[in-house]
Fold this sequence. Notes:
The chain has seven helices and six strands; from the N terminus they run H-E-E-E-E-H-H-H-E-E-H-H-H. The chain has helices at 2-9, 48-61, 71-84, 91-100, 121-129, 134-138, 145-153; strands at 16-21, 26-32, 35-36, 42-43, 106-110, 116-120.
Amino acid sequence: AEQAFLALYATGATTGVVVECGEREAHIIPISRGLPILSSVIGLGYSGYDITNYFIKLLNSIGYPFRIHLHSNRIVAMDIKEKLSYCAIDFGEEMLMTCRHDAFVSKAYKLPSKQKIFIDRHICFQCAEALFNPRSFMGKGEIGIDQATVNSIS
């Protein structure tokens, strides 16, 4: 909880909610006047590790053979995820737009081997959507990061 407070304090606030999503665990931490409200901290049933695994599955689905348990593949997949993924404001609308306009616009990524690969736009926002709907996309977790945040301050 100390890291969460420091993250909040760095914004100039001492009261707020910190969403902490690391490689191995993720938490929602409400903080009031510099102190975590421990009874309201929510641990999520998924983390960055699970999001990376899901992203690797998405990459495999478009023909890039990344292996989940190969460390070098995970490092490259995490880099792609961190550089190209984004949250869609309206997931359904973004999917419709992508399909409707044949807008499978790709984003280029240069591998360490200098080879360029192209990641379909829908893969980039579908990965982030797993944070909000983990059961549907990854088969993990009970609630999304948005609902967990609301629950922690209710």
